[in-house]
Write a structure and sequence with these properties.
Order of helices and strands: EHHHHEHHHE
Helix content: 55-70%
Largest sheet: 3 strands, antiparallel
Shape: elongated
Distance between the termini: 31 Å
Strand content: 5-15%
């Protein structure tokens, strides 16, 4: 399996796809929850008008977005080693030692994403442009790296010997 560092543009586009995915999931979840709430009200129109001006609704939206954001990235990194956006560009996230990510590393990387993007006004995402190892702030904090895989092989596939494709069916 050939591994190499991805281009910065690939990482940026992958993250953009992931943000779009997170926003779509968030909008769907908030819509479903608000719809259920309004169905339970005696006067849904009046309740909707109240929700639109209520500060608590905006806080709920922000909280829902944060939960979806952290969940999406944590589950994607932990379960698959990549997100939907990274899959488009054949990118994967591994530990510094090329191992699969643990749940803790995945969760830490997800929170570090917030630090890279939101809390530093995106400066953490620009670090790969200036570093020889091409690591962003979240890579450094979570002790991970992004690699590009040039074959159809996945990260966790090891050479395990002959497969059923190599066995002659007439020999059995």
């Amino acid at each position: 399996m050939a591994k190499r560092q991805p281009k910065y543009s690939q990482r940026a586009l992958a993250y953009s796809i992931d943000l779009l995915t997170v926003y779509l999931i968030t909008i769907t979840c908030v819509f479903a929850i608000v719809s259920c709430y309004l169905l339970l009200q005696t006067n849904p129109r009046e309740s909707w008008d109240h929700l639109k001006v209520n500060q608590g609704y905006r806080i709920f939206q922000s909280f829902a977005h944060l939960v979806v954001y952290i969940s999406y990235f944590t589950i994607s990194f932990w379960s698959y080693g990549k997100t939907i956006g990274k899959s488009f560009f054949k990118l994967s996230v591994v530990s510094e030692k090329d191992d699969e990510l643990t749940f803790g590393q995945s969760l830490g990387r997800s929170f570090a994403y917030l630090l890279s993007g939101q809390l530093t006004l995106g400066i953490g995402f620009l670090l790969p442009l200036f570093r020889e190892d091409k690591k962003a702030l979240h890579d450094l904090l979570a002790k991970t790296k992004v690699i590009r895989i040039d074959s159809n092989e996945t990260i966790d596939q090891k050479e395990t010997g002959p497969t059923t494709d190599n066995i002659d069916s007439s020999a059995a």
